[in-house]
Amino acid sequence: MPSLDPSTTLSTASLVIAMEILWIVIWVLVVWFIIDLVRVQDVIARMPQDEQDRFLVGTPLTPETREFLHRRLYFPNSSRRFLLVLVLVFAIGIFSKLLGL
Known about the structure:
The chain is mainly α. It has helices at residues 6-46, 49-56, 63-73, 77-99.
């Protein structure tokens, strides 16, 4: 039976712990980014139409262009809530798996 070198075992364990911490940090940043994205969309949705136009492109838009951009860039309120719940459930699952719970 080969003998295990304690320094090799310790460095391998340290690497595993560092990778686990890195994945936790990455998932925290991903969840934070998605929540901020939804919050920014809420703020933009509360603005008057002309301010939304200035925020998006800097100039007033035609009604057709505004409707096109609105359909492509914004989630409805119910979808935003669903996205937040989905992200939180996914994050809890990932964190519990990473922490071994």
